[in-house]
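[job 4471] stage=fold_predict status=RUNNING
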Amino acid sequence: MSDITETEKIEQARIKEQDRNRRWEMAYKARIRQIVPGLCLGNVQASHHKETLLRNHINAMVSLTDAHWTWWRSTTRSAGIPEDRHKWVQCVDSSTQNLLVHMSDICDFIDQMACPALSSLSSLHVQPEQDADTHTATNANDRSSDANAPPKLY
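[job 4471] inference complete, writing structure tokens
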């Protein structure tokens, strides 16, 4: 026989639900992380969140998505990314998706859009992950207070 009262069961269920909601909200929060000066990595929510793009000085982006690009046309345009500065790669989120076939075009686009700080790098330094529970983390070197910060490629 269990020593847990009905009230305790209800409280445990409430705590479990709050935890599930917290994890769900974190999964859908717009996040961007600077990889190197001038190059950021972010999630899909950040790709059309105007305040996040402006705060991080994003002026171009590459999107890897299985969503039809016309759906994004209005949201990224209203967020300030013009069509000629947005590269679309139609793909599925799968471990079997071959992204290497797209890398040459993606790298060419990044080279064309890159700010001088990124263009001057001879190699990319890999920074350790700051938040192991997410694919991207908040930029530790956030330059949002620097109005003269160079634009970044997202």
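[job 4471] summary: Confidence is low (pLDDT under 50) at residues 129-150.
[job 4471] exit 0
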